[in-house]
Design brief:
By secondary structure, the chain is mainly alpha-helical. Helix content is about 65%, strand content about 5%. It contains eight helices and two strands. Strands 1-2 form a two-stranded antiparallel ribbon. Helix 6 runs antiparallel to helix 7. The protein is globular, with a radius of gyration of 49 Å. The two termini are about 90 Å apart.
Length: about 280
Amino acid sequence: MNAPKKYVVSKTLEQPTWRNTALARGGSKGSSREVAKVLATELRRYHCSAMRSSCSTTSALFLILFAVTACASGTRAEHQKPAQVTIAPATSARVADTSANTQHTYTAADIHFMGGMISHHAQALVMAGWAASHGASPSVLTLSERIINAQQDEIAAMQKWLRDRHQPVPEANPHGMMMKMDGMEHEMLMPGMLTDSQLKQLDQGRGKEFDRLFLTFMIQHHRGAVTMVKDLFDTYGAAQDITVFKLASDINADQTTEIERMQKMLASMIFGADIP
């Protein structure tokens, strides 16, 4: 890199030269008018010479200042220029792989939970569906309608989740989940599900007896669903899929809340007093 040029002001201010012979001789023989004229001329020359030197000096300083400013501006521009972010191909590949893998973060425990909860919900729909025809009280009817609306949608969501992952989609069987054992299929009750004799007992109830049996059996049923969620969350690697996690969390929250409500309804029915 070439060394920067140095700007040197070499012009020296002219000093006044008293060349007039009359002044050189001391001005003794020159008239006062001549002395004044010569003095004025020399002062003008000195003033003009000083101004020229000053202008030259100022110009040189201006050039130096401009050069320094330009360099500084260039440096600032380089520092202020937005950095261009380039994503390395390897990083892009990792992101793509991560996005693809998130679609396959389900486990056998997730599949079992979704399939089992379909049957579990199916039985709840049967139980709640009897409320209108078995003389249930208004409060039990309202609870039953809420259960039907929520769990119908959840059954559809679970079946879609299994179908999208090319897994077997069980029928909504209220008597249990079909399982293969020793080459034969058997109905397997999920935690909290009513046995056939319990279902028959509920179906025979009417009015207040139906309400009592419904609340008693539905509390049992809901507790089983909460147990299934706990078992899922306790299984290593399970419930990492966002749909499974959200669905299981919603089931846990909704049914825990409904258990508390049904316990209060049942206590009020038995003891004949409203329980806050």
